[in-house]
Write a structure and sequence with these properties.
Blueprint lengths: L8 E3 L11 E3 L8 E6 L4 H17 L5 E7 L5 H11 L4 E5 L3 H6 L7 E5 L5 E6 L4 H12 L1
Parallel strand pairs: 3-4, 4-5
Antiparallel strand pairs: 1-2, 3-6, 6-7
């Protein structure tokens, strides 16, 4: 079997669907596929793909697919992350990885953006380095739902 993704907790930014300071726990979404996107605001390809991620979230949320954006801190602050999310109008769950544990230790992400696709059992089905477009997102997500 594939590797199960480690459970993690993220303190969320405020979006249309989430209150600032709300907690996201991966294990809350057991039985649902989850798309985990690793990003930071001053990463141009991360910024470029955000509207496509938002569109994919809107299209697939009725199917029970959850999206979460994990911001790497360092080049940008959490405040800058929140400002960016407000500006772009992303509505899925996003927050900053305060300790770096999620990005570095758990998922061993080295390039940005990276998107990790988890099936209903939260096993890693696919890890995609680089920006994604809508077609590719839809194709991979359809596979998670099969």
């Amino acid at each position: 079997a594939q590797d199960a993704a480690p459970d993690f907790e993220l303190v969320l930014f405020e979006t249309e669907n989430h209150a600032r300071g709300e907690n996201f726990r991966l294990s809350q979404w057991e039985g649902k596929p989850v798309v985990v996107n690793f990003w930071f605001p001053s990463c141009p390809p991360c910024v470029a793909e955000m509207p496509d991620l938002e569109a994919a979230f809107q299209r697939h949320k009725a199917d029970g697919v959850e999206f979460v954006g994990v911001q790497l801190l360092g080049l940008d602050t959490a405040e800058e992350g929140q400002e960016f999310v407000d500006e772009v109008g992303v509505t899925y769950a996003l927050g900053a990885d305060e300790t770096g544990d999620i990005v570095i230790k758990h998922f061993k992400v080295t390039g940005f953006p990276t998107t990790v696709f988890l099936d209903r059992d939260h096993e890693v089905v696919r890890s995609w380095a680089g920006a994604l477009n809508q077609e590719k997102l839809d194709e991979i997500i359809r596979g998670l739902l099969e």
